[in-house]
Amino acid sequence: MADKSTKKSGGLGETVSVIIQALLLALVIRTFLFQPFSIPSGSMRPTLLEGDYLFVTKWAYGYSRHSLPFSPPLFSGRIWGGEPERGDVVVFKFPPNPSIDYIKRVVGLPGDTIQMQGGALYINGEAVEREKIGQIDDADVTEMDRPVDLYRETLPNGVSYETLDLTPNGVGDDTREFVVPEGHYFMMGDNRDNSADSRFSVGFVPLENLVGRANIIFFSIAGGASPLELWRWPSEVRPSRIFDWVD
């Protein structure tokens, strides 16, 4: 009986040890390598849709306290820091409330002057190349029951992506000039008429607030469905978006 008891105790101990090691490994991966995020709003349409699940690379810009779960104030600034490039799609902590994650595109770097005029983006006084490429009539992409104008925008460094123009003369189509402070970035959503970004409540985003760069969509489901609702997969999963790179 003693031998059997010892074996049972050893088996339980080994199981607990394996679980603890797995949890620690998951914590290391989440903190230093990849972190999964889901898209909760339409501010980055058509690049990212609600129901997209993506991996964010944590090492892209180095590490700050926001790289750790719950953002403990263990240190300030970034270590092994890299800087984002214009056009990167970035997850960051909302400056007025760092408990909230946002995802937007970097359009303004430190020292840049940013302005919107007539729906066009101006960087340092120069209009960013912007070409109307057609219309989208797909409510899953636009959230609208009518066709929506689609533009291709190309930043000065050659990064190119699509933007939606839901309505002419939107509230964010004409703005004042914004001068990006040192150590900060100007973020905008690709859904220009439906994005709370640096033109509005977000303001300038400190480098410290960056969590990581969005790289790849690993799952996507429409209709407000949860990935756990397997019975909805046949009608709601978006196969063409799975393992799609984020541009």
TrEMBL record:
Q: From which organism does this entry originate?
A: Nitratireductor pacificus pht-3B
Q: Where is the Peptidase S26 domain?
A: 14-219
One MF term in the entry's GO annotations: signal peptidase activity
Q: Which reaction does it catalyse?
A: Cleavage of hydrophobic, N-terminal signal or leader sequences from secreted and periplasmic proteins
User: What's its membrane topology?
Assistant: Single-pass type II membrane protein
Q: What is the lineage of its organism?
A: Bacteria, Pseudomonadati, Pseudomonadota, Alphaproteobacteria, Hyphomicrobiales
Main site of residence?
membrane
What Gene3D superfamilies is this protein classified in? Umud Fragment, subunit A
Enzyme active site: 43, 104
The EC number on file is 3.4.21.89
Query: Mind listing the GO biological process terms from this record?
Result: signal peptide processing
Q: Which InterPro entries match?
A: LexA/Signal_pep-like_sf (IPR036286), Pept_S26A_signal_pept_1 (IPR000223), Pept_S26A_signal_pept_1_CS (IPR019758), Pept_S26A_signal_pept_1_Lys-AS (IPR019757), Peptidase_S26 (IPR019533)
Where is it localised? Membrane
Protein name per its UniProtKB record: Signal peptidase I
**Per its UniProt entry, what is the enzyme's top EC class, as one word?**
hydrolase
UniProt similarity note? Belongs to the peptidase S26 family.
Q: Which SUPFAM superfamilies match?
A: LexA/Signal peptidase
- The residue ranges crossing the membrane are 12-33
This entry carries the following GO cellular component terms, namely:
membrane
Lineage, top-rank taxon, reads: Bacteria
